[in-house]
Write a structure and sequence with these properties.
single chain, 432 residues, mainly alpha, Growth Hormone, Chain: A, 15 helices, globular
């Protein structure tokens, strides 16, 4: 054993501590974020809002995430991850406070405008917090690399983070329904804001102030000049999350309600789906063959699971078109299969972005990637309302299938070797 060996566990333990703190903080944030979605969706559907109007309420929430991720990644690199977590939490508390001020006496147009703006603020908060949290994984993994040799630990940490986060969001869906019934819209928002204040105190007092701080990009050109792996993965992410939200945001909840389900049953299904999806994400490292270089097995896995996922909405769409008996349960079962394949896809993608990213500017790379994620959610949310209003669940599922075929085609462009990604990045910078 070398003289430096005894310090390795200490460094690794410190990294694990930081990873645990950031993950716990993001759990608290995600719990309230999931509850918020259910609060807004159920509250305004109960008031008689149309499917497209419901989707419209979330548009600025999703659109704000595109810019928030890009800027958040750059700011986290320049000012440190702790500061960005703090900004994200404060912004979310502000959004909750504004929503709580909604006055039932206002006109429908005024109410919609107020909710859209407040949701936009919450969208900024969500993506600032997510970008900072995901970046922290890369930073802490680099610190703990001596303990596990790098890539294996990275995949495990990413999978656990994303899986547990989505499971927590599922609990949030359930919590939103419970709070709405028990406390009402306004008092529910106050309760969630109070929880976030506690999370904020924990972040400020526990996360190292300079964690993740590095030399940030000096220009927009440099910020967008990512390597081939990140560019292709970002494009695939747009299609992947658009394919989910095109049915998840409006289509399925409204369809199930139209089949006689209660709000509690609908919220319970979405919660169970999201929790199950999160559990599969956490288990993804056991479902995907691993490679020593971190790419040669993982990239083909991304291609395979994208192809399998594309088949699921096609099958559900056929069932809807044929109006098979017990259609709602066929849809529920099909979406269970969709959730399984989608979870593995998402987890592999979340690992690959950090595998392609450099440690020094991980926050910028992650921010760019999740800006694409937010763009996909925005497109999916918009199409969810439009397609369902035009052709019901069938159109939403067809839209999902088309997006997933595009996602699969884009995964074919993913580099299998990091050298190829680096060369492409250099060429891009050279030729601009």
């Amino acid at each position: 054993m070398s003289a430096a060996t005894p310090s390795a566990p200490s460094t690794a333990s410190h990294a694990v501590r930081n990873y645990a703190i950031v993950t716990a903080a993001y759990w608290g944030f995600t719990l309230t974020d999931g509850a918020l979605r259910m609060l807004v969706l159920l509250h305004f559907y109960k008031l008689g809002y149309s499917p497209f109007t419901l989707a419209f309420l979330f548009l600025l929430y999703e659109a704000a995430g595109v810019l928030a991720n890009l800027i958040g990644g750059w700011l986290a690199t320049r000012y440190g991850i702790q500061r960005m977590l703090t900004v994200g939490l404060v912004t979310q508390i502000t959004g909750f406070t504004l929503l709580s001020l909604l006055n039932p006496a206002w006109t429908a147009a005024m109410s919609v405008a107020w909710v859209v703006v407040a949701q936009g603020i919450c969208g900024v908060a969500k993506d600032l917090t997510k970008t900072a949290s995901k970046s922290a994984i890369k930073v802490t993994q680099a610190q703990a690399k001596a303990e596990d040799g790098g890539n294996n630990q990275l995949f495990k940490w990413v999978a656990w983070f994303t899986g547990s986060k989505n499971a927590m969001k599922g609990f949030g869906f359930f919590l939103g329904g419970v709070l709405l019934q028990a406390l009402g819209f306004q008092h529910s928002l106050w309760a969630m804001a109070g929880l976030l204040v506690l999370v904020l105190i924990g972040v400020v007092t526990s996360v190292p102030p300079m964690m993740g701080k590095a030399k940030a990009s000096k220009s927009a050109r440099e910020l967008f000049a990512k390597n081939a792996g990140i560019n292709a993965l970002a494009a695939a992410r747009v299609a992947l999350f658009g394919a989910r939200d095109v049915w998840f945001v409006v289509g399925v909840p409204v369809f199930l309600y139209s089949q006689g389900w209660t709000f509690t049953m609908v919220g319970g299904f979405l919660a169970a789906w999201t929790i199950g999806y999160g559990m599969v994400q956490a288990l993804a490292p056991q479902l995907v063959r691993r490679s020593t270089d971190g790419l040669s097995a993982e990239v083909p896995a991304a291609r395979l699971w994208s192809a399998l996922l594309a088949l699921v909405p096609v099958g559900i769409a056929v069932a809807v078109y044929l109006q098979v008996p017990n259609l709602e349960w066929v849809v529920v079962g099909g979406l269970g299969l969709f959730g399984f394949a989608f979870a593995v896809n998402s987890s592999v993608h979340s690992y690959l972005i950090l595998a392609y990213a450099g440690s020094e500017k991980a926050a910028e790379d992650v921010g760019f990637y999740y800006a694409a994620n937010a763009l996909g959610r925005f497109m999916g949310t918009l199409l969810s309302g439009l397609l369902y209003q035009w052709g019901g669940l069938l159109y939403a599922l067809v839209g999902s299938a088309v997006m997933l075929v595009i996602c699969w085609l884009l995964t074919l462009q993913l580099p299998v070797k990091k050298q190829a990604a680096a060369l492409t990045k250099n060429e891009g910078l050279k030729h601009g």
